[in-house]
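#structure-requests
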Amino acid sequence: MIVEYNGNNSGGNDWLNSGDRQALRDAGWRVLDTGLSTHALRQGDDLKEIIEEFERVASQDVRAIGCNCCGPPHSFSYWPDQNDIDAITLVKERTYSYYKAPEDWPYPEYIHPSDYTRTVDVPFDF
């Protein structure tokens, strides 16, 4: 499975600093800095372990509430049937740059990020 961390600049700031992003890279995460927030991808077999690793490596609490207007600063989604992190990275990079909807997606050899993905509600029970 491929898990994606989605950062929200809740309160006006990205909750991950450059040290957090580098720590995630060093731990094997693919970090995509979109300018407004941070997204990171991790391949693995256990969703709970991947999210716990994120908390440990980035020194973050995924249960943080954030501000009233922006909502939670941390969320996760995952592709249960995908294991090609290179393809997902390419898809996400191109999506953040150009394409927002599946009908605009010009790369039939790759899935659009909204296809085959599941969202994890945080906080959730481990």
